[in-house]
């Protein structure tokens, strides 16, 4: 049984969709309760799942609580896997092993009822253990990404010349993502165009920054995109500019789609990237260093080829669907006898 009370869009939410569908493909029997975002519900149904839409309100949402209790009683799960704070707090008690998945450095007060905690990076697991979670109750299982290719997004759709260096950024338009740094960096790279795919409250501010730097014609805001493979297929360099990034699904996606990566050295990218092997790391909040690394990747063919090959090899070795589903299966097998 899986519970997800997240937003309509986001990295954790997108991975929840992928994992639920992957479990289904692997023959795992599951029931799912999610907030009734229509796009998610439709995607899960199309994959053969039957999600239950629940509000997952705060303290007085008795309907969600009673519905979850009925689902537990009817399905009698061995494992209940909950995602992030709200779904974990909403999980009723029962005769099952409660596993909560964390994709960040969350306040652990919300996780007191969970039997086991899963972090999707080793650094998150280290954080859990520093906070007093025993080693036999804190586990590392990474994410996987979809490597299915799509035809490249037409550059002409966004006024991008075919011969211009194209830089791609993905994520919520939020201060943590550092898109202001990325826009400043791209402004320093001659002829480079930037596509930013995502939505958020900072869009107007970022548009104004591009205008003030004189690069409005070189920066395009694509909105939220589910077809990110088409964007990777069009890009020359992917940049993760985040000030705070616990994992970096977007780095994994770039590796899977064979796009060279430049990343600010926040938590997740620093754990993932071997500098010069499968990407380049730059200091957080340093647009000058970011611009220089982008130019290096564009200029040095051999380095670019090395990084693309290294990124794809890292993805295939650790972050495929088969590897991650197997890791969850192994974890569940280890913890079930120790209820």
TrEMBL record:
<feature type="domain" description="Glycosyl transferase family 1">
    <location>
        <begin position="155"/>
        <end position="312"/>
    </location>
</feature>
<feature type="domain" description="Glycosyltransferase subfamily 4-like N-terminal">
    <location>
        <begin position="10"/>
        <end position="147"/>
    </location>
</feature>
<dbReference type="InterPro" id="IPR001296">
    <property type="entry name" value="Glyco_trans_1"/>
</dbReference>
<dbReference type="GO" id="GO:0016757">
    <property type="term" value="F:glycosyltransferase activity"/>
</dbReference>
<dbReference type="Pfam" id="PF13439">
    <property type="entry name" value="Glyco_transf_4"/>
</dbReference>
<keyword id="KW-0808">Transferase</keyword>
<protein>
    <submittedName>
        <fullName>Glycosyltransferase</fullName>
    </submittedName>
</protein>
<dbReference type="InterPro" id="IPR028098">
    <property type="entry name" value="Glyco_trans_4-like_N"/>
</dbReference>
<dbReference type="Pfam" id="PF00534">
    <property type="entry name" value="Glycos_transf_1"/>
</dbReference>
């Amino acid at each position: 049984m899986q519970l997800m009370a997240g937003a309509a869009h986001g990295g954790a939410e997108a991975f929840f969709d992928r994992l639920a569908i992957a479990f289904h493909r692997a023959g795992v029997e599951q029931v799912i309760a999610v907030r009734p975002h229509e796009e998610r519900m439709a995607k899960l149904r199309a994959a053969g799942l039957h999600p239950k839409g629940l509000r997952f309100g705060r303290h007085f949402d008795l309907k969600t609580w009673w519905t979850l209790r009925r689902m537990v009683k009817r399905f009698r799960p061995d494992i209940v896997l909950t995602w992030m704070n709200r779904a974990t707090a909403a999980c009723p008690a029962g005769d099952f092993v409660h596993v909560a998945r964390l994709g960040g450095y969350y306040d652990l007060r919300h996780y007191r009822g969970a039997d086991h905690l899963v972090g999707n990076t080793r650094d998150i697991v280290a954080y859990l253990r520093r906070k007093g979670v025993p080693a036999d109750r804190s586990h590392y299982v990474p994410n996987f990404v979809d490597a299915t290719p799509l035809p490249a997004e037409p550059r002409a759709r966004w006024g991008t010349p075919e011969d211009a260096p194209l830089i791609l950024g993905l994520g919520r338009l939020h201060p943590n993502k550092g898109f202001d740094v990325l826009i400043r960096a791209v402004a320093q790279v001659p002829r480079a165009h930037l596509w930013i795919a995502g939505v958020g409250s900072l869009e107007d501010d970022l548009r104004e920054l591009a205008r003030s730097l004189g690069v409005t014609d070189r920066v395009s805001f694509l909105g939220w995109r589910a077809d990110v493979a088409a964007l990777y297929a069009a890009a020359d360099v992917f940049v993760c500019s985040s000030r705070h990034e616990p994992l970096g699904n977007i780095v994994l996606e770039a590796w899977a789609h064979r796009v060279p990566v430049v990343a600010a050295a926040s938590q997740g990218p620093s754990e993932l990237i071997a500098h010069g092997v499968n990407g380049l790391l730059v200091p957080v909040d340093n647009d000058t260093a970011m611009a220089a690394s982008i130019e290096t990747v564009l200029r040095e063919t051999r380095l670019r080829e090395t990084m693309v090959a290294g990124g794809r090899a890292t993805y295939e070795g650790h972050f495929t669907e088969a590897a991650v589903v197997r890791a969850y299966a192994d974890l569940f097998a280890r913890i079930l006898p120790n209820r």
